[in-house]
Amino acid sequence: MLAAISTDHLIALLALLSVAGLLAGFLSGLLGIGGGGVLVPVLYEAFGVVGVPEDVRMHVTLGTTLGVIAPTVFRSFSAFRVRGTVDIEVVKRMGPWIVLGVIAGIVIAHYASSEALRWIWVVFGTALAAKMFLGRDDWQIAGKLPRPPWLEGAAGVIGLVSTLMGIGGATFTVPLLTLYGMPLLRAVGTATGIGTVIAVPGIAGYIISGWGEPNLPPLSLGYVNLGACVIAPLAVLTAPLGVKVAHGISKRTLELAFAVFISTVVARFLWTLLH
After folding, report:
1. CA 262/CA 42 separation, integer angstroms
2. How far apart are CA 170 and CA 157, in angstroms?
3. What's CA 34's distance to the chain center, in Å?
4. What string of pLDDT tens digits covers the 275 residues of the chain?
């Protein structure tokens, strides 16, 4: 049974979700991250406010996050493609393996506990924050992408982990591409293409996986809550602004700020796991 929520709490909740949607859209366009890193912790807390049981709370958070960020990723992909900064051949090469990783991620998420999903966020969120704190845009392993099966294997892992974290995949795709010589802006644009490949099967998978699950919040299709998805249009509004800014400034300061945010999220999830 979901807890009742007062009018004041509802207004505060909607305001919080609206700000998160605007910020997620901007970050999607600016960094190619899809905004999931912002929305996962916000939705996790929001679903806690309305009394979603802990055993399905993280599942609903991940599925809903993919539903919210999907239109934003599509809009960012379109904007980058118009500017000619998407390597479609790389998207085609990685795409099938991304889908296989997404399918594997959905199967694992279906059987995983809420605790296990939070531990996944802690482990990979820590790695992401460390990369943003320490990484540099000019770090490079080679001047071209690796031959099969290495890139394909990496694509499968990206699809798997992204699905289990509720993110668009670009958080891992951008570093991978830049390490192998792709210019940062082109890597960000290409990563939005990867995000579109993750979003569609990811959303479908979370709907099917959660179908008929008890204790879901109202307006849910499986683990995707349509009520929270209403903030998606706000994210779509700010995605082109992020793309515009991405073509004009250095993003190092914002990367550091985002690293601090991710570290805070990791600490919050770790606290829920250890208490």
Report:
1. 12
2. 12
3. 5
4. 455 556 666 676 677 778 777 877 777 667 656 567 778 888 888 888 778 899 999 999 999 999 988 887 888 899 889 989 999 999 999 999 999 999 999 999 999 999 999 999 999 999 888 887 886 656 778 878 999 999 999 999 999 999 999 988 887 898 899 889 898 889 989 999 999 999 999 999 999 999 999 888 888 899 998 888 778 788 778 878 877 876 776 667 667 767 877 888 899 899 989 98
Longest dimension (CA), the chain: 57
Helix (H, G, I), strand (E, B) or coil at 210: coil
| Nearest in space to 108 (alpha carbons), one of 153, 150, 154, 58 | 58
Tokens 């996986």 belong to residue? 209
Tokens standing for 105? 């991620």
- The pair of structure tokens assigned to 181 is 């010589």
Q: Tokens standing for 125?
A: 């969120």
| Alpha-carbon distances of 196 from 28, 114, 122, rounded to whole Å | 12, 26, 25
**Cα 267 to Cα 56: distance, rounded to the nearest angstrom:** 21
Helix (H, G, I), strand (E, B) or coil at 224: strand
Distances (CA, A) of 136 to 13, 122, 177, 179, 249: 37, 23, 13, 10, 15
Host H or E run for residue 225: strand 224-225
Extents of the domains making up the chain: 7-274
Which of 83, 43, 81, 63 minimizes the C-alpha distance to 199? Answer: 63
